[in-house]
């Protein structure tokens, strides 16, 4: 996955230079007459969540950049599964764009028998935000890094980790297996609920993807380990799991996808416009407000990342 | 004449038993003893429902109300109209379906005053459409 | 500690014509959306958030908060006039509001609702402003074990809502309990009762169920009444006429409900401060507690102003208290608060522990806006209720079909698919059957709302304690809550069965 990340960076660099030199609005190559109707964004999650916020921001920036009319609809259910399954039945005209998470395409097909799609059924336009997965704990707990945490768990016989979704237990189980210690995942409804248990001191640590950043900045929490492949800018001292000697890194993305048979030139048009938005100063500033980056991997990068991640989770979840 | 309460008790008891013997085993993963056991709450629900059904059979009251046949017919008409409208919504779009639903209500309500009928038929669907689609930007089909 | 000069600066920021205008617009929009069945405040907020992209931050936040506050007032109107709750949280208001309106006092009922709604909202805002930080700490200390105990207590309180037959009421509640288990289970994420339908993975959509069983079943009853041969009930509720006394609420009448309002306010604030519950639960629980605490519980449900006060004060108190976990911890208490978070983020502000330090002036400005919005609510409410009363005086043959179509469209929008409509219609049919045979819909809905939280808390508690029941001894708060549950079952349960309590006619109020 490391090489993949370098690829992401270089791709982003190319896009940035592209925008810096050319005129922004003319950057994308679109077929004549496209879209010719409203473009629909179908968000796989409910209104008000992280994916929804990002989708609406991209939609509004895209409207400004292109002059298209974009209708944002929420199709929540089964971690984006309801939306993705609905996308399969749509005409592949590029007018319906799904906004999903990595769970939608790389985890759902492995865990749910009723899902009826795989990551191969979609064409990918790019990604909109990197989720900063980290293992974090209250600052006044007696451990500040993964080693100390594991030592505590060994001494006590077990440690509890609150997670926002049942699928996050993959990371907890992998850490437990690696160190030969009993770690208990305490599943809750969403990251905010998991954070509450950790802040109240009811569990020993929690796995978080975005909201913990402000807690760390305030000095209320510490990052024990970073789950993403590279160290997090907001917690430069926390080692990644890879650095801790584990063969595990978990990355989350907000993914933009369309039906698989969408014509090539429309895919080019949409993904170039998306890259234009995600690389803009305006969008970068918006994400900086949430201590996040877009990390847009572009169409090929996303497709490759999704394929790799799907193999990875397929193995982990088959156990 | 069978006591209505007792009959309901039998139905509830039957449903509770169906839950425990068939629905939960067939549609819920069961991992007994594990704190994560997904079937715990459904099983508890099954036991409670079956027990309460039995209690209702035993302690049935004689004075429970039964709805008039005409009322049941009316409800079924409206429900049918709504289901048919929902089925046709993706095919025909909102405005035609809404007008159809309004015609059905007017017939069922036997509205005879032409002005109010026209307002219900045309004004209401347009108002709802305008509210959702234009003002709130929420597509309706 | 609050910095006084910062506080004054923040408050004075609000008092510009520009900000006032947005507060007023927000309140009006909220009251209208709240009063229309099928349109939810969540929907209004989700739509309003993008509208605020271009505004400056204080105006944007003030606008959104005003929409939320307006909605809590607006929802009561159709509950009272049509027995069709405009928002799920105002369903408890219908239980006494509609009978009171039927008795020819619709304006009086709406005024009771408005005054108590504003009172509950204002008081919980003041609590938020003065006590947010300590309350947030208390709420944090409520772990899964304490929440489990609290949920058990809430379930025992349902017994006050079961209606005539205890057994039937409990059957209704257990059906709600069962329905709440549909979807992926909280522990292992395996599907339960989903029958291959992906749409059911996140559970039966709550809003569609509440629109169906609360609003739509009311609409169906209204439509049926219109079909009856005697056309006297042509318009839903007669607005005109009535003496002056029937159209106003005197201060003495308002003051008579002070203990009811106090209990309701406490319940609403506690439920609001704990993330994950919500204003519908608060309204019903407060209604039930106040009914059980009353000397004459039978009076509830016949148009008793205490019922309106109990429901409206509590559901509005949630709105202010909901911001406690949001502002102090960055944890949104419900969906409305989550939408506020996304508005904050869009304006470059990250809610969380640093919020007061980094954005003190803005937060005090927001507090100012909340107080102003409450008074706007009072003023706009006075005007709006006359407007709605006029609308409702149109023939029922247009009002009820319109309400039906609004529920139809609203249910579609919730899921973005006809699936929502089918759930809504099924819930309406189920609601009708329950009403007809004397099963309490309210007990059903409350159990449906509480169960997911109960199941999740039980699960967490078992994992955290490693299934060791003796751990409970280390959680005195949980023990106290369980003791109260047992006491309320013993003390309040049998008392309900003595209808002779009512032989002394007691005046309304205390």
Oligomer: heterotrimer
Q: What's the level 1 CATH class of the largest domain in chain A?
A: Alpha Beta
The sequence of SSEs of chain B as H and E is HHHHH
Helix content range of chain A = 40-55%
Unreliable residue runs of chain B: none
Principal-axes geometry of chain A comes out as globular
How many helices of chain A? 11
CATH architecture identity of the largest domain in chain A: 3-Layer(aba) Sandwich
* End-to-end gap of chain A: 22 Å
Strand order in space, largest sheet of chain A: 2-1-3-10-4
- Please count the helical segments of chain B: 5
Low-pLDDT residue spans of chain A: 1-26
Q: Sheet bearing the most strands of chain A, described?
A: 5 strands, mixed
Summarize the structure.
By secondary structure, chain A is of the alpha/beta class. Chain A is built from eleven helices and ten strands.
Offer a few descriptive terms.
heterotrimer; A: 319 residues; alpha/beta; D-Maltodextrin-Binding Protein, domain 2; 2 domains; 43% helix; 18% strand; B: 141 residues
Describe this protein's structure.
The complex is a heterotrimer of chains A (319), B (141) and C (510). Chain A is of the alpha/beta class and 319 residues long. Chain A is built from eleven helices and ten strands. Chain A folds into two domains: 196 residues, D-Maltodextrin-Binding Protein, domain 2, CATH 3.40.190; 93 residues, D-Maltodextrin-Binding Protein, domain 2 (3-Layer(aba) Sandwich), CATH 3.40.190.10. Chain A has a five-stranded mixed beta sheet, sandwiched between helices. In chain A, strands 7-6-8-5-9 form a five-stranded mixed beta sheet. Chain B has two domains: 66 residues; 74 residues, no CATH class. In chain B, 74% of the residues lie in helices and 0% in strands. In chain B, helix 4 runs antiparallel to helix 5. Chain C is mainly α and 510 residues long. Chain C has one domain. In chain C, 71% of the residues lie in helices and 1% in strands. A two-stranded antiparallel ribbon of chain C has the order 1-2. In chain C, a hairpin with a 6-residue loop joins strand 1 and strand 2. Classes of the chains: A alpha/beta (319), B mainly alpha (141), C mainly alpha (510). Chains in contact: A-C, B-C. At the B-C interface, helix 1, helix 2, helix 3, helix 4 and helix 5 of B face helix 3, helix 9, strand 2, helix 10 and helix 19 of C.
């Amino acid at each position: 996955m490391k090489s993949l990340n370098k690829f992401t960076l270089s791709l982003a660099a190319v896009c940035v230079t592209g925008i810096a030199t050319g005129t922004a609005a003319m950057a994308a190559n679109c077929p004549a007459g496209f879209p010719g109707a409203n473009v629909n964004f179908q968000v796989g999650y409910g209104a008000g969540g992280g994916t929804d916020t990002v989708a609406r921001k991209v939609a509004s920036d895209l409207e400004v950049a292109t002059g298209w009319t974009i209708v944002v609809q929420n199709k929540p259910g089964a971690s984006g599964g309801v939306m993705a399954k609905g996308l399969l039945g749509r005409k592949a005209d590029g007018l319906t764009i799904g906004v999903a998470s990595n769970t939608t395409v790389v985890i759902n097909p492995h865990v749910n028998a009723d899902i009826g799609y795989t990551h191969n059924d979609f064409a990918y336009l790019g990604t909109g935000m990197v989720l900063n997965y980290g293992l974090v704990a209250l600052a006044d707990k007696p451990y500040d890094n993964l080693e100390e945490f594991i030592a505590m768990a060994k001494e006590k016989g077990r440690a509890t980790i609150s997670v926002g979704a049942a699928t996050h237990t993959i990371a907890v189980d992998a850490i437990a297996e690696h160190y030969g210690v009993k770690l208990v995942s305490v599943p809750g409804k969403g990251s905010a609920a998991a954070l509450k248990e950790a802040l109240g001191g009811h569990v020993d640590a929690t796995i978080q993807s975005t909201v913990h950043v402000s807690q760390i900045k305030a000095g209320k929490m510490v990052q024990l380990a970073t789950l993403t492949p590279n160290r997090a800018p907001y917690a430069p001292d926390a080692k990644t799991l890879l650095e801790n000697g584990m063969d595990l890194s978990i990355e989350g993305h907000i993914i933009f996808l369309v039906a698989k048979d969408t014509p090539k030139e429309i895919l080019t048009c949409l993904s170039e416009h998306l890259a234009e938005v995600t690389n803009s100063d305006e969008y970068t500033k918006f994400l900086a407000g949430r201590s996040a980056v877009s990390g847009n991997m572009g169409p090929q990068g996303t497709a490759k990342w999704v394929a790799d991640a799907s193999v990875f989770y397929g193995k982990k979840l088959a156990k | 004449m069978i006591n209505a309460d007792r009959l309901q008790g039998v139905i509830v008891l039957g449903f509770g038993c169906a839950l425990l013997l068939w629905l939960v085993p067939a549609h819920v993963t069961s991992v007994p003893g594990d704190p994560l056991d997904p079937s715990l709450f459904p099983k508890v629900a099954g036991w409670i429902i079956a027990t309460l059904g039995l209690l209702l059979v035993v302690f049935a009251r004689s004075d429970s109300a039964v709805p008039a046949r005409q009322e049941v017919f009316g409800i079924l008409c409206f429900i049918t109209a709504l289901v048919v409208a929902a089925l046709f919504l993706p095919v025909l779009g909102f405005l035609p379906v809404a007008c159809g639903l309004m015609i059905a209500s007017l017939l069922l309500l036997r509205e005879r005053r032409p002005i109010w009928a026209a307002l219900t038929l045309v004004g209401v669907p347009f108002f709802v459409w305008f509210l959702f689609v234009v003002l709130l930007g929420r597509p309706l089909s | 500690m609050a910095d006084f000069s910062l506080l004054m600066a923040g408050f004075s920021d609000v008092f510009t014509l520009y900000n006032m205008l947005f507060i007023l617009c927000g309140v009006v929009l909220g009251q209208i959306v709240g009063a229309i069945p099928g349109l939810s405040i969540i929907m209004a907020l989700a739509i309003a958030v993008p509208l605020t992209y271009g505004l400056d931050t204080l105006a944007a936040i003030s606008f959104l908060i005003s929409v939320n506050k307006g909605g809590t007032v607006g929802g009561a109107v159709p509950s009272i006039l049509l027995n069709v709750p405009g928002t799920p949280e105002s369903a408890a208001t219908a239980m006494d509001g509609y009978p009171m309106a039927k008795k020819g006092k619709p304006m009086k009922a709406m005024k009771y609702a408005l005054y108590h709604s504003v009172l509950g909202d204002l008081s919980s805002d003041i609590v938020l402003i003065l006590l947010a930080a300590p309350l947030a700490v208390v709420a944090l200390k409520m772990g899964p074990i304490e929440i489990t105990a609290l949920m058990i207590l809430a379930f025992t309180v349902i017994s006050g809502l079961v209606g005539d037959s205890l057994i039937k009421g409990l059957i209704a509640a257990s059906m709600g309990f069962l329905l709440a288990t549909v979807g992926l289970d909280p522990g292992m994420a395996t599907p339960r009762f989903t029958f291959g339908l992906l749409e059911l993975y996140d559970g039966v959509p709550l809003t569609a169920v509440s629109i169906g069983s609360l609003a739509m079943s009311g609409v169906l009853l209204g439509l049926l009444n219109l079909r009856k041969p005697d056309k006297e009930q042509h318009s839903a509720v007669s607005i005109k006429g009535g003496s002056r006394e029937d159209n106003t609420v005197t201060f003495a009448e308002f003051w008579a409900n002070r203990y009811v309002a106090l209990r309701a306010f406490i319940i609403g604030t506690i439920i609001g401060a704990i993330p994950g519950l919500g204003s519908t639960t608060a309204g019903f629980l407060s209604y039930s507690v106040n009914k059980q605490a009353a000397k004459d519980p039978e009076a509830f449900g016949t148009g008793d102003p205490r019922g309106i006060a109990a429901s409206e004060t509590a559901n509005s108190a949630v709105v202010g208290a909901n911001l406690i976990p949001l502002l102090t911890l960055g944890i949104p208490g419900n969906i409305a608060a989550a939408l506020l978070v996304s508005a904050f983020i869009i304006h470059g502000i990250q809610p969380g522990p640093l919020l007061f330090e980094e954005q003190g002036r803005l937060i005090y400005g927001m507090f100012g806006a909340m107080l102003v919005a409450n008074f706007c609510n009072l003023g706009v409410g006075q005007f709006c209720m006359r407007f709605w009363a006029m609308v409702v005086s149109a023939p029922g043959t247009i009002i009820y079909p319109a309400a039906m179509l609004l529920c139809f469209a609203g249910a579609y929008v919730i899921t973005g698919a006809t699936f929502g409509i089918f759930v809504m219609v099924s819930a309406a049919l189920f609601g009708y059957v329950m009403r007809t045979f004397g099963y309490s819909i309210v007990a059903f809905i409350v159990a449906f709302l509480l169960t997911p939280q109960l199941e999740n808390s039980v699960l967490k508690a078992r994992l955290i304690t490693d299934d060791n029941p003796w751990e409970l001894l280390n959680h005195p708060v949980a023990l106290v809550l369980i003791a109260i549950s047992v006491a309320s079952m013993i003390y309040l349960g049998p008392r309900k069965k003595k209808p002779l309590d009512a032989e002394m006619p007691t005046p309304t109020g205390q």
